[in-house]
């Protein structure tokens, strides 16, 4: 099998599994966080789970990126930096920032599947940028797709990180409990951190103008939209005073 055949085959498999994921997660909630439940096999400490699950997206990306002939060209380098900005944080800083409920654990099955996907995603995007993306020359810096994509990435990143920080602050006020988050993106939706994540990777896909990037946005949506709907239902069922006009993930729409 040539490298091209492998790359295209894996890409196709990710598109197909995004479809399978949205169908599966519309039916069953991934067992972690507020949907953690017994009966899903062994569990591990929450922080360790996050590191193991997310780090392949950073490390595997690095490995494949630096085997490519375009690794030291300006535009691929910039895209590599924004990718790593997100993933170094998510893998090695975020897990030690979250306020974990005492004794909380997470399901190994979720970590194993997430880790496998993150490795595949690192392979696809790292390989694409430095092996295949011939359009990412210096001229691409002034292309509207690049400019808009980077702006979207920045906005999504801010929305995601600020919303996650607000949730941490809520936990600090009331350790071990869930409360109704209020303010900023929570004025519109229950899960602004998920919305931020989707906008971040839409920006990356646009800025890199790649099917690898598109596969990641679709997979992220397949993961996060059903969970946002489930979390929104959970909030409404748990808190009788939950704001009635707040949507799940897309302001005014969903
Ligand atoms: P959640 O919003 O469910 O939880 C984030 C943290 O905040 C957890 O520590 C959670 O505690 C705590 N928390 C949540 N709601 C409340 C509340 N109402 N009151 C107090 N504390 C609260 O997000 P996830 O854990 O699902 O995801 C974390 C990050 O990872 C997000 O930024 C998300 O976008 C990203 N992510 C990306 C994915 C992708 O496919 N790209 C997939 C999954 C996540 P507890 O754990 O106890 O519930």
UniProtKB/TrEMBL annotation:
Q: How does it sit in the membrane?
A: Multi-pass membrane protein
Membrane-crossing residues? Answer: 6-28, 71-87, 107-124, 144-160, 198-219
Subcellular locations according to the entry: Membrane
Q: Which UniProt keywords apply?
A: Membrane, Transmembrane, Transmembrane helix
- Name one matching Pfam family: Steroid_dh
Listed GO cellular component terms?
membrane
One of the entry's Gene Ontology molecular-function terms is: 3-oxo-5-alpha-steroid 4-dehydrogenase activity
- Domain (3-oxo-5-alpha-steroid 4-dehydrogenase C-terminal): residue spans on this chain: 107-254
Is Membrane a UniProt keyword of this protein? Answer: yes
- The answer to whether the entry has keyword Transmembrane helix is yes
Signal sequence residues = none
Q: Which GO terms describe its biological process?
A: steroid metabolic process
Instruction: Quote the Gene3D superfamilies the UniProt record gives.
Output: 1.20.120.1630
Q: Which InterPro entries match?
A: 3-oxo-5-alpha-steroid_4-DH, 3-oxo-5_a-steroid_4-DH_C, SRD5A/TECR
Its principal location? Answer: membrane
The UniProt entry, under PANTHER family, shows: 3-OXO-5-ALPHA-STEROID 4-DEHYDROGENASE, STEROID 5-ALPHA-REDUCTASE DET2
Q: Any idea what this protein is called? A: 3-oxo-5-alpha-steroid 4-dehydrogenase
Q: What is the lineage of its organism?
A: Bacteria, Pseudomonadati, Pseudomonadota, Gammaproteobacteria, Pseudomonadales
